[in-house]
Fold each of these.
Amino acid sequence: MENEAAGSSRVAMPPPNTGTLITILTIDGGGIRGIIPGVILSYLESQLQELDGKDARIADYFDLIAGTSTGGLVTAMLAAPNKDKRPLYAAKDITPFYLEHSPKIFPQISGPLAGIINLTKAMGGPKYDGKYLHKLIKGILGGTRLHDTLTAVVIPTFDIKKLQPVIFSSYEAILKPDLDAELADICISTSAAPTFLPAYGFKNKDAQDNEREFNLIDGGVAANNPTLVAIGEVTKQVLMQHADLFPIKPMDYGRFLVISLGTGNAKNEHKYNAQMAAKWGLLSWLFNDNSTPIIDAFNQASADMVDFHNFVVFKALHSDDKYLRIQDDTLTGNLASVDIATKENLQGLVKVGEHLLEKPVSKINLDKGVYEAVENGGTNKEALQRFAKILSDERKLREFNAGSRLV
């Protein structure tokens, strides 16, 4: 499914210092629920193509794309180059990719003994061996390294040996060559969800042959919603006076444009309660009705706190028109799973993404624990149309200014 733009003469987006904004796209973790942001991204890219032609791709408009776990894989698909130095995948190809490969990454066990078999497997190791996923990712990305991406990327992981996050950032790869790992290794690492897929270890060398060892698991442990990590990486580079960036005053979020895509959750299902959890031991926290409560809890907690922080800060600085969070908290049953890769469930997730486009722009209410419609925010589809126009205008402004500098 290589990008249709192979051979296109479209040039890279000029740097932010030739325009007025720093543009950021982020994608949460969530296993097979990566289908949901896949549908959203396909619509956004179609709007960019209506404005700028069929060769337009997501990576042509964002200074930074960040993704955790399944979002990290989507990030690599959007930003890694093919042989013609264009994105490996168009956004419209993300959903078909998940529909084709998810059943092989997460092979399903059916029948009356499925629950017992899954529990037995969970006792002895991860639910899935990851072999198909590892081979697939390495086959797609080959030897592509972090510094090779067409736009900057940020992919969080967590080092289980050092018990600390490891953030793979295109910016840091230049300053710290030992972080300039192969994208395949990074994607496998950020997707290594505890209890589902095995932890992943690898070594990487810098130009002086100094070796660094990594012992990594799912980036969701550190940042299932990577938006703050992305903003932090850019801010750090601004403070270091990166040549491509312009000076930003402290907390001047008005220069950021951020689209943050969630992968859905079952918040409204209220499937757990204190009475249930008070009785749980280790096994129940790890395995309860085809879900893993402890992972659901820490992933959703960090994602919501990031969204709440961003919404408040952007609004306080009168920049809320440049922050868009698209998330669905109404998933139920198998749709909320990260790994139930039946044909019925995968198609159901496609429909969730399509319906989400028609839903109103929403924000998290931490008091009620739900997303609520933003007043006069319109639908997510309308918001994406508006953001596409801003992104297109920003690119055109940069191209004009960059051309003027050469004259």
Amino acid sequence: MNSRCALVSKIIPFSCVDGPGSRLALFLQGCNLRCKNCHNPWTMGRCNDCGECVPQCPHQALSLREGKVVWQAEVCQQCDTCLHLCPQQSTPMAQVMSVEQVIEQISKVAPFIEGITVSGGEATTQLPFVCALFQQIKQTSGLEHLTCLVDSNGELPISGWEKLRTMCDGVMVDLKCWDNERHLALTGRGNTRIKQSLHWLAQRGMLSELRLLVIPEQTDYLQEATALSAFIAELGDIPVRLNAFHAHGVYGEAKTWRSAGPQDIEALSQALRAGGITRLIPPALYL
């Protein structure tokens, strides 16, 4: 796959939850974290054409051709049977798309949106494509007004952020836990590089939003509120979005975890405010 193509999980033409205003949200396949609480675990891996999903499809939308799993969109009923069966945490519905094909989709809705957000999975695992896409948007007549944002877990090295710097209008980053060991247990990786990314992006005016997902009894924001508040203060005047975990739709042990309610969010809000952090965005809803 060349730098002008990417494996795309989904495109949502109009989204109001993936950055400011109405945006086209482009979800790329593949992630370098393995979060236990992930609501879209089938975006983590990549199909290896093992074919296990093919005979299980109740609508015969999948077939094996020359050793490749082929998805027929016109037959698919979106029952998600294949997603739950996949041993690779992938989806046979992901499609290889070129920059030109994505630009075509963006152009159709450009008059009605304020920008695009590239998410995942983890968008930066396909960094050359993201750079090429953003550069093309900036150079295409009729798309110049669109802002280009990345929704990221922050695992990209600084050298990668440097490549995005000239064509990216902002990055929204999740900090899954404060303590490195707790972060490792929850996601499969530590958070040292993520904290480095947050500092680097903030210092260059590229950090649009810090996101904290509150998972009762799992995340440590409240216990580490003093250190967390000091860290956020170092980032500058950055919006902090508080998201509430809900167990509906997750898999594995996370299905047994308690969903976050207003009382959990308010407790963290009070602790952060006590540490001088005031630009807090509460959840839009609780499930």
Amino acid sequence: MKKNLRKQVLQELKSLSAEEKEVMDTWLTEQLLLHPLYKEAKTIATYLSFPHEFQTARLIEQAQKDGKTLLIPKTYPQGKMDFVLYEPEKLERNSFGLLEPQGDFTILEPSQIDLIHVPGLAFNPSAYRIGYGGGYYDRYLEHFLGHTISTLYPCQIQDFHPDPHDIPVEEVLIYERNF
């Protein structure tokens, strides 16, 4: 079931026009930057987005301007993941085509992170998520005591039952059309 839902939502995301995505990304970024969880956080973890995902570039740029410590994921085999300092000069493409830190990097402990901006393909109304199937975020969030938030396009809201190991996101920002 999750496999089919992943495929369906991925198709919907990839079918969004550049103009639609730009409008939604701008609105979602503004909402995130105004959110109390962002404003209060000193150390924020986010991700470097695929083209079909919410674009994190503006969030990263503003977080740096705001003096936040910025972290990105570093993945390892068997679904292990750490968050490391964002240092653009150390990024290289991994086997999934994502930019990831290589060489020397600084890992921060979960207790040092105030807010994680969590990616995902589909989210249900209770804020449980379906990612790409590696389980990286569910494993990490299982022991994370800080705050979590996600930014979603409307097509990412789906009805599904979470698995026992799934971890919900604390806050979800969903694009709303402003007419």
